[in-house]
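Design job #97: recover the sequence.
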């Protein structure tokens, strides 16, 4: 955790990280990378036994331990209201602190909007949005006390740009952008930095939709370095949305165009000046909604 030079490996020795949905896909690769760099990892995933009698989180914790790393499992749905405090409790009991929270657990229930059931909406919002809120809130007080925290939330191209058949998922993923940006503002005073990852990888969630020849290029291991960087103490970013997929790493921005100004604008003025309103020659990225004194 001390000074480092550019040639030194970015490490997490002494840090305690929680990774939800860490029993498979992207979460597993995040948990493995953080553990390989010295973090103690709490791997959360649903309580389901595989053929070998292990839960998904238990299997990844065992895999980490077999490589000389430090990990414990928390088995249970992050969508349960009691899950956030329970996962944080597991981290405190096993390792005495929480420095890093990677909100990654996720599901899809794809259907076109007209046919989507209330249950399909609720299930998706519960895991992504309420799961992330519940865990981050449970960890918030602990991180605030120590004046240190790194939180990553998982958005998606579907939430940022929209995607056919994913109204429930897009709503949850875009909701996380608002949540993350507000928590970045609120966390700044406490040394807590909050960023979003928009990942792309061939996993059990997506592999069936991706051509086979893309699977190797779209490995979760190509997303993990970006997430690990966002979790590192040297990372200066907060409130950012970073894209990582297939070996490409980029920044996503929500911009506001310079626009058209008229204090007495009529409907017809709006129609006439639509090109000025939409023009992207000049734009800004607002740092936050309004500048209010902190409460
Ligand atoms: N794979 C992609 O291209 C892609 C793109 C955009 C966003 N994402 C997001 O990345 C995250 C990881 O997805 P993935 O592709 O690795 O999918 P995945 O299905 O391979 O892994 C998701 C993991 O979350 C676990 N999980 C599901 N519900 C849970 C719950 N209620 N509580 C705890 N764990 C739960 C699953 O058991 C699984 O291990 C998700 O939030 C997903 O929406 C993935």
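Job complete. Output follows.
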């Amino acid at each position: 955790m001390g000074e480092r030079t550019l040639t030194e490996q970015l490490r997490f020795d002494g840090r305690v990280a929680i990774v939800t949905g860490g029993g498979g896909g992207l979460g597993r690769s995040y948990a493995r990378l953080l553990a390989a760099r010295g973090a103690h990892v709490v791997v959360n995933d649903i309580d389901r036994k595989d053929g070998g009698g292990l839960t998904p989180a238990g299997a990844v914790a065992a895999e980490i331990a077999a490589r000389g790393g430090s990990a414990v499992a928390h088995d249970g749905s992050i969508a349960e209201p009691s899950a956030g405090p329970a996962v944080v409790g597991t981290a405190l009991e096993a390792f005495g602190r929480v420095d890093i929270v990677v909100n990654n657990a996720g599901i899809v229930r794809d259907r076109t909007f007209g046919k989507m059931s209330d249950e399909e909406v609720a299930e998706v919002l519960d895991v992504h949005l309420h799961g992330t809120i519940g865990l981050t809130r449970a960890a918030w007080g602990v991180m605030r006390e120590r004046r240190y925290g790194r939180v990553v939330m998982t958005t998606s191209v579907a939430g940022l740009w929209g995607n056919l058949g994913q109204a429930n998922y897009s709503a949850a993923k875009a909701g996380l952008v608002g949540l993350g940006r507000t928590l970045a503002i609120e966390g700044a005073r406490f040394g807590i930095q909050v960023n979003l990852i928009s990942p792309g990888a061939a996993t059990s969630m997506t592999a069936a939709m991706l051509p086979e020849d893309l699977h190797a290029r779209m490995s979760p291991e190509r997303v993990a370095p970006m997430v690990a960087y966002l979790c590192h103490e040297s990372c200066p970013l907060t409130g950012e949305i970073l894209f990582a997929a297939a070996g490409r790493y980029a920044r996503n921005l929500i911009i506001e165009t310079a626009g058209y100004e008229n204090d007495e604008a009529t409907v017809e003025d709006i129609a006439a000046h639509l090109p000025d309103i939409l023009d992207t020659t000049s734009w800004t990225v607002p740092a936050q909604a309004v500048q209010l004194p902190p409460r």
